[in-house]
Write a structure and sequence with these properties.
Strand content: 5-15%
Shape: globular
CATH topology: Rossmann fold
Helix content: 40-55%
Number of strands: 4
Largest sheet: 4 strands, parallel
Number of helices: 6
CATH architecture: 3-Layer(aba) Sandwich
Structural class: alpha/beta
Length: about 160
């Protein structure tokens, strides 16, 4: 049984679809960009849900990670996403003054302004990182923010190698 799993995982030996091995060995431009969104449960995640229930068209290559509050996001989460292969990272939370936990987004703003300033020193173009505020009622705004960010990252193309 273990041999079967190993063979299937390799793709080439099992006769499985060559897309797995082709993606690993092919040029980085052959794949769609991967975007990680780290979002506040109370506002931005709800805004994304509002956009979905409103049937606003959104890019399919965005994967959301829901956190209780953007104030709890360590900037290293964004850097870890880049290290693990993300082509872009979007962080979004409640508007200042509207935080479910009172001041979390004020702490987040300080952290992400600093991260935004230093990210290019790590070899990551600043266009691959964005932080913003989107409330639960702003489904159209969420759709616009996500679409603009993903299209900007698509213009840059997939990242090659690891910056960190």
């Amino acid at each position: 049984m273990a041999d079967t799993k190993t063979t299937q995982a390799s793709g080439a030996a099992s006769g499985a679809a060559p897309s797995t091995s082709a993606a690993a060995s092919g040029a980085a431009g052959d794949r769609p960009v991967k975007i990680v969104g780290i979002v506040c449960n109370w506002c931005s995640y709800a805004g994304a849900d509002t956009a979905g229930t409103g049937r606003f068209k959104q890019p399919p290559n965005l994967r959301l990670v829901r956190v209780p509050c953007t104030g709890r996001i360590d900037p290293l989460f964004a850097l870890k996403a880049f290290e693990k292969g993300a082509d872009g990272v979007l962080i979004s939370g409640c508007h200042p003054g509207d935080c479910h936990y009172s001041e979390g987004n004020y702490y987040a703003r300080r952290k992400f302004e600093l991260l935004e300033r230093m990210i290019h020193y790590l070899g990551i173009p600043k266009e691959r990182f964005k932080w913003t505020w989107v409330s639960a009622s702003e489904g159209q705004r969420w759709q616009q923010v996500v679409t603009d960010f993903v299209s900007g990252v698509e213009k840059l193309g997939p990242r090659e190698g690891r910056a960190l």
